[in-house]
Design a protein that fits this description.
PI-PLC X domain-containing protein; binds 2-acetamido-2-deoxy-beta-D-glucopyranose; seven-stranded mixed β-sheet; alpha/beta; about 20% strand
C-alpha cells in the first residue's frame, strides 16, 4: 500500500512541475517582472543574410529559441507602419501588423510565456495607429496595462501576468502616449 502511494507521487510530481513553469522555469513564477533577466533580439524583424539584417531566425524561430524580449524599428511608409531598417528603401520587412500576428500566433500556443516588445518610433507615428495594428493582429487581448506608473518593486509577478493572460509588455522609445494607448509604455 505504502509503495503504491509512493509510486503515484512519483508520477504526479514531475507533471506538476512542468505545468506550473513560467517562461520555462518554476522559479520565475513568483518573481516580479522587474526582477527577471531575459534574452533579447535586437532589430528582430530584420531576418536574412544581408549586411542590413540582424537575425538569422524569424520572430517565431526567435521565440522558439527562448528569446522573450524583442525590439523592432518602425517607420511611416505608404501611410502605414512598416518595419524598416533606417529607411524602407534600404530594408523593408513588411507591415507591423504581420509581425505582430506572428507573435500573437506563438503566444496563442504558448500560454505560460510572457513576451516583451520594445518598439522604436523615430518617425513619431501617432500611437493610435499602433493600436490599430495591435487590433488587426488580434494581439491587443494580451497587452498589459499597469494600474498606474509603477515603481520598480510594484510590478506584478510572471504568474500574475500569466494568470490574467496579460502577457505582452510593450515599451516605446519615443512618442508614446499612455493617455491615448495605455498599454504602450514609455
Ligand atoms: C529578486 O528575486 C530574488 C530571487 O527570488 C530575490 O532574492 C530578491 O530579493 C528579488 N529582488 C527584488 C528587488 O525583488
Amino acid at each position: 500500500m505504502i509503495l503504491k502511494i509512493f509510486f503515484w507521487l512519483f508520477l504526479i510530481g514531475p507533471c506538476k512541475v512542468s505545468a506550473a513553469a513560467c517562461n520555462g522555469n518554476d522559479a520565475l513564477c513568483s518573481r516580479k517582472y522587474s526582477n527577471i533577466t531575459q534574452i533579447g533580439a535586437h532589430d528582430s524583424a530584420f531576418v536574412g543574410d544581408l549586411p542590413t539584417d540582424n537575425q538569422n531566425l524569424d520572430v517565431t524561430g526567435q521565440l522558439n529559441a527562448g528569446i522573450r524580449f524583442l525590439t523592432a524599428q518602425t517607420h511611416s511608409f505608404l501611410n502605414q507602419i512598416f518595419l524598416c531598417h533606417t529607411s524602407c528603401w534600404e530594408e523593408d520587412s513588411g507591415v507591423l501588423a504581420d509581425y505582430l500576428t506572428a507573435i500573437r500566433t506563438w503566444m496563442d500556443s504558448n500560454p505560460n510565456e510572457v513576451v516583451t516588445l520594445l518598439l522604436t518610433n523615430g518617425d513619431a507615428i501617432a500611437v493610435s495607429m499602433f493600436a490599430d495594428a495591435y487590433d488587426d493582429a488580434g494581439i491587443s487581448k494580451y497587452t498589459y496595462t499597469p494600474p498606474n506608473q509603477l515603481a520598480l518593486g510594484d510590478w506584478p509577478t510572471l504568474q500574475d501576468l500569466i494568470s490574467a493572460n496579460t502577457r505582452l509588455i510593450t515599451f516605446m522609445d519615443y512618442n508614446s502616449n499612455t493617455g491615448t494607448v495605455p498599454y504602450i509604455l514609455e
